[in-house]
Design a protein that fits this description.
The protein has 167 residues and is mainly alpha-helical. It is built from 4 helices and no strands. The longest helix is centred in the middle third of the chain and has 57 residues. The radius of gyration is 58 Å and the shape is rod-shaped.
Length: 167
């Protein structure tokens, strides 16, 4: 025996009777096998790549729908412009006159006479005077009535003049 052991044996007489206390050994950690780690990593990569592909396909479909909707908007804008042009032509005076002449039978008047009434005093039926007759004009009429009377006398081929009637 060694010298150090000899020294301890002399002093430790009842060491054999006591239990030997050992420190607690560290618990073993559960280790994941490397093949399982590789499989889990591969599954995660596949899941991420599938999600990315699904997002790309959805984006492609949405872009196709956007293109189709843009084409529909352009077609509707063209149709709207066509309708506006059609409305403009239908509302023109020439088109309205053509419809009135061809479909509704409108004709130009053959002969027109103008009747000028005194706006101050109503005339009796026996006192009515036609504008194309040379009758004296009272001085109490308005400026427009005098002017219309003078123009009707000067140009007897003229159109129709509407006057005001008193009630």
């Amino acid at each position: 025996m060694t010298a150090a052991r000899k020294l301890t044996e002399d002093y430790a007489v009842h060491d054999y009777d006591q239990e030997i206390i050992r420190p607690n050994p560290k618990r073993k950690r559960f280790r994941v096998p490397p093949t399982l780690k590789i499989c889990l990593l591969a599954a995660i990569c596949v899941a991420v790549s599938l999600l990315y592909l699904e997002q790309q396909v959805t984006s492609f479909h949405l872009n196709m729908q956007l293109t189709q909707l843009d084409e529909q908007v352009k077609l509707l804008e063209q149709h709207n412009e066509h309708l506006l042009v059609n409305l403009e032509t239908q509302m023109s005076l020439q088109k309205i006159e053509d419809i009135a002449r061809n479909q509704l039978g409108m004709v130009d008047p053959d002969r027109t006479t103008s009747l000028v009434l005194d706006s101050k005093a109503p005339l009796a039926p026996s006192e009515r005077r036609w504008a194309d007759q040379n009758s004296p004009v009272p001085d109490k009429r308005g400026v427009f009535a005098v002017l219309a009377s003078w123009l009707n006398k000067a140009f007897p081929l003229g159109g129709v003049e509407a006057g005001t009637l008193q009630r």
